[in-house]
Here is the input.
Amino acid sequence: MGIRLTELSHGGGCGCKIAPAVLRDMLAAMPHPIVQVFPDLLVGIESGDDAAVYRLNDEQAIVATTDFFMPIVDDAFDFGRIAAANALSDVYAMGGKPILALAIVGMPTNSLPLDTIQQIMAGGVAVCAQAGIPVAGGHSIDAPEPVYGLVALGLVHPDKVKRNNRARDGDVLILAKGLGVGILSAALKKNKLDADGYAEMLHSTTQLNTPGIWLAQMDPVHAMTDVTGFGLLGHLLGICRGSRLTAEIMFDHLPLLHSARQLAQQGFVTGASKRNWQSYGHEVDLAPNLTEWQHNLLTDPQTSGGLLIACSGDAAQGIVQRLHGDGFAHAATIGRLRAGAARVVVR
Here is the structure.
């Protein structure tokens, strides 16, 4: 059968952006000041947003991001597809339309066959082709563990950028994909994920978040992000902190991947889920009737997770219906934002 890709991956699959406070502290500790004022930098490190955005002119801004991680599945082609979709998601989450990608490749060439490496890269190319963009170059190194991802570039109108810190009091929250990818990944590593569960995981993680393009054109959409390594609670807290609002969500309204619900109830959980709670649990109020498996789904790290949208109430139903029409069957309203401290309340 050969070497399993996940056996070469010791650090887990889901990746996260560096938290903005951590990055600011790192820059402040450097011996010479390197942070300058760039008036055309519309989005940088200040809000922990999904990508950087730089204004080129009155009509165009470039969206730039990078994302890469180690395998969460053993099929090389599927791994490439997942990693590419995950990287492109950050462009869509800012309201951008991808224009090109560069490959980031680190592979243990002494232990991983060349055809396996080629299949990983082919998976990334296939997803980029689906997005209508080329993989126009990149960089590769010999590495002790397999790593693959993309630098992704896109374009957006400067006035249509969807930040995570522009939500308003009374906004409705919409989540476009089901939760539970991390739990499915944990089951896969223990050979406890069946074929249906794997298919569900693969569909979710390779589905491109293209609705971000048309959501950017909608004035009732005030803020947007995608749910990735910090889990639903972590990325929702990013909206709450930036917008200075309290989120109230209903657990029973959350869309869950079918297999993830069953596996979570059986006790499958990732270490990253526990670390997520340790980092931000003090900003969350959980209903006392929530069980441990429900708690774990709230902090479950997602790979290529769904868009999290804050919009005016009168637009919410139409957005959910359009998402369903675009193939996002799990899309649902999950709660609201209100005036108050930056917290999440789960009922």
